[in-house]
Amino acid sequence: MWYLDNGANNHMCGDKNKFIELDESIRGHGASLNCTGSCGNRGPDIRFPFRIKDKQPDHCGFDLSCSKDNNTVLKLPTGLSLHIERIDYIHRLIYARDPQGCFLSEKRSLYIGKIPCLRTYKHEVYAVESSISISNFDLLSCTKMYNIYGIPYSMMQEENYVLTMSWSNPTCGSSETKCYSNLPHTKVITALYRAYSNDKTHREYQARVEMFLDDYRSLNPTRYSYADLKRITNQFSDELGQGAYGTVFKGKLTNEITVAVKLLSNSIGKGEEFINEVGTMANIHHVNVVRLIGFCADGFRRALVYESLPNDSLQKFISSADSRNLFLGWERLNRVALGIAMGIEYLHQGCDQRILHFDNKPQNILLDNEFNPKIADFGMAKLCSKDKSAISMTTARGTVGYIAPEVFSRNFGNVSYKSDVYSFGMLVLEMVGGRKNIDDTAENGDQIYFPEWIYNLLEKEEDLRFHIDGEEDARIAKKLAIVGLWRIQWNPAERPSMKTVVQMLEGEGENLTKPPDPFSSSIPKRTSAGRMPARRLHQELAAISEIE
């Protein structure tokens, strides 16, 4: 099912203390004179909320056009033109066909085919039947974007498959049409202003977001209205969780397709988090990066719509010290770490510009039904050229405990893609530890930094005692610990790249060398390796002054 969005129908209709005169009452939801027509004798009637472009007034509704052979045409934002066969104004349904064959290919014996409306100047997009091997295709390289479920069998077989689309019930107020009264010459004055503390500044931020979205109109994510989100989430009734930038709700596009809707809080301000996320994720298609399905920029309301992942975040499975029923197992943990590493490596090297995430942590690693990891939450991401060895930042980004030292102070080096490597190392060590906030009130203040405790165990060649049942488990745990410790070296130059991380995780780990002690310059160790440490991943850190 496709949905139409009545464009920018929620703009402010006046400045502060200004008013707009509207004719009183409503007659036919804006259906004024000259709002009825057709493209030919056999074409459907065109009336509110639709109009024939350049032939009927703007206030009649959505733009339709007439082809040279008198077909009624609906042009989608992707550039695709559909032929309208019938419009059901009672049930608000449009029945259309695709004359260009954009969705289907003539070569149905092998696969459904190319999808030209999703192609870019760099690559083609194919829809392939799940039973077909991609080895049948002459491709240099390919990346799986996502699975699509619930496609009608008739759509893959019929040459003239009919697409069904719907539109929401319009109102005069939200459509910005003129409203006419049966009472002559009667007018009312309606104040169309909602109080905002800094109204001019808010409008500037909104204009900035709209300008950004105009540039990204041709990309894949769908733009939803706020009314769409209320319908998708059943009035935001099922909350999945809360984060620093907003609240996440469960939603349904169809009975088969569930999504996660992140409603951004109004306190975000200038819209950087929204622009970062849409601008970054619109071009990303990788099996280990969560897919952005759409977004909402409806007035001052902003939201992001993602694919829904049934197993929540990695945090759920590594936050308990004793819950074996939530433990993923060492082989699966290794696969999760490898998937995260491949996702970060793609962000660093697989796109035109390098994408630095700056907030890699268990809460931002989502797991699908097969526990494949997907990196999420790009609100703090930053784009930079691949040939830049350092990037500029005005403020620290990320979550305390996962932030690289150089992000706090340039005394430790320049901020670069190696800062993401550090965060990944802390994440892996937390996977190895499998616990959170352990013994945070240890007696006599006898505490130790958790990664340092893991290093001490390796130094003394003691086992990492977390759900270890055999030699294979011990080998994987040791490999993950070494990989994590290499990534949290204080000197960014000593941290191996994510490409090297992938190679290390794909190997058996027999030849891995223990990294230098990243804690050698810290305060003297007071806790032995045998005592369980206190975790300090989420506490506040003191500001570090920089040397000019």
TrEMBL record:
ATP binds at K270. It is a single-pass type I membrane protein. Keywords: ATP-binding, Glycoprotein, Kinase, Membrane, Nucleotide-binding, Serine/threonine-protein kinase, Signal, Transferase, Transmembrane, Transmembrane helix. Residues 509-532 are annotated as: Disordered. It is found in: Membrane. Residues 234-520 form the Protein kinase domain. InterPro entries: Kinase-like_dom_sf, LRK10/LRL21-25-like, Prot_kinase_dom, Protein_kinase_ATP_BS, WAK_GUB. One of its GO terms (cellular component) is membrane. Pfam families: GUB_WAK_bind, Pkinase. GO terms for molecular function: ATP binding; polysaccharide binding; protein serine/threonine kinase activity. PROSITE patterns: PROTEIN_KINASE_ATP, PROTEIN_KINASE_DOM. This is Glycerophosphodiester phosphodiesterase protein kinase domain-containing GDPDL2-like. The gene is LOC105134442.
